[in-house]
Amino acid sequence: MRYIEPHGHMVSRTTDDYRAMTMAGCQAVCEPAFWAGFDRSSAQGFYDYFCQLTQHEPRRASMFGLPHYTWLCINPKESEDLALADEVLAIIPEFMGSPNVLGIGEIGLNKNSRNEMTVLEKHVDLAARNDQLILVHTPHLEDKRKGTRLILDVLKADSRIRPERCIIDHVEEHTVKMVLDDGFWAGMTLYPETKCTANRAIDILELYGDERIWMNSACDWGISVPLAVPQAAQEMKRRGNDARFIDKVVYQNPIEFMSQSPRFTRPEEL
Amino acid sequence: MADRKNILDLYFLDARARLIDIAAFMDRVDRAGGGADFRYDAFREALKSLGDGQPGRAEKVLLAFSDPTNEPIPEATTKAACGAWPGANNG
Ligand SMILES: [Zn+2]
User: Fold this and answer.
1) Does the pLDDT of residue A40 top 80, yes or no?
2) Helices A228-238 and A198-208 meet at what angle, rounded to 10?
3) For residue A253, pLDDT beyond 70
4) What's the number of domains chain A is made of?
């Protein structure tokens, strides 16, 4: 089996995870910028994190033969402080030319506040001005439905944004339809308790089809499973889904989306 | 198209175990002292969509826990979500 991990916070994972992922058939890993689990105290903290994402982590991944791509932003959990967000937005362009940067992400909303909206709009503008792909984080639990709606409205209000160049991540049964209906890509995150289980994600695939959709583990420093994607692929097999359908969802679709960035190389061409 | 017997062969025992866990959870909450809680109110509301015989149950359960409003909130005073909407005056 071959698959791509389109959303993994590898700076929080061990070399054992890298080894297990490559042994399970992982061909590339993509790492959006995220909250560290605590608030960074200054823009300098983000500067160091962006160095880690663009220089150190790709080197660590390469020790396992794994291509590593990344996305840059200040995440919505740290977007309430507008002054800090502006400082971080100002340093992102310096890293946008790095060879493993695919775009701006994971931007979005957390508690659906006005300041989070302002920072989201600034990121969307940054992406549009620099012709970058966009990866969006949608809020957790009770905040997801409203936040997803607000995010889609922001993206649709900007005429420079093409929905097929944006992936809206962490969709569930109550948000997947609005995302796909508006022409965006949808990501399903496989978490043990929150977000989607493998079985629910497979149900969504059976109901909504295999176009413009992928699965990811979003593995980070919290309770999460770096092998969630190959485990879901195994469950698809157990359910009787055919091999071509599985390969499209876990391998071809991530390639189709990310190949819209000239920085992404199909694993078989490396 | 999946065969119903196959789906039950694959998932019946797992779903049965989860259902008993939910029943035991509700007994546990009832045994415990204390007043009403918006999370448990939402939980009981969500359960109703399991018995209505209509598809889209997972979506309806998720919506029962969701913030139904559409305007951004003035300020984020916490980063966390608790799984159920506390209501407009209790956020
Ligand atoms: Zn993430």
Assistant:
1) yes
2) 60
3) yes
4) 1
Among B6, B63, B67, the residue with its CB nearest the CB of A143 is B67
Q: B64: distance to nearest CA of chain A, Å? A: 9
Give pLDDT, residue B88: 73
Asked whether the CA dihedral A172, A178, A180, A184 is positive or negative, the reply is negative
pLDDT of A176 over the 80 cut:
yes
- Check CB contact under 8 Å for A113 and B79: no
At residue A192, the pLDDT reads 80
Give the least confident one: A1-15, A114-128, A135-149, A191-205.
Answer: A191-205
Residues B39-68: b if buried by 16+ CB within 10 A, e if exposed: eeebbeebeebeeeeeeeebbbbbbbbbbe
Tell whether the model's pLDDT for residue B91 goes beyond 70: no
Instruction: Answer whether A73's CB lies under 8 Å from A105's CB.
Output: yes
Give the position of tokens 């944004």: A161
Determine whether the interchain pair A145/B63 forms a contact, defined as Cβ–Cβ distance below 8 Å: yes
The model's pTM is 0.97
Q: Hey, what are A88's tokens? A: 């971080």
**Mean pLDDT score of chain A:** 97
Q: Considering CB atoms only, which of A117, A173, A238 is closest to B72? A: A117
* Dihedral of alpha carbons B22, B23, B27, B30, sign: positive
Paired tokens of B48: 């109703």
For the packed helices B38-47 and B57-64, what is the interaxial angle rounded to 10 degrees?
Answer: 160
- Residue A169 belongs to domain with CATH number: 3.20.20.140
Q: Which residues of B touch A174 (CB under 8 A)?
A: 59, 62-63, 66
Task: Tell me the CA–centroid distance for residue A34 and ligand 1, in Å.
Answer: 6
**pLDDT at residue A236 is higher than 70:** yes
The closest CB to that of A143, out of B56, B74, B81, belongs to: B81
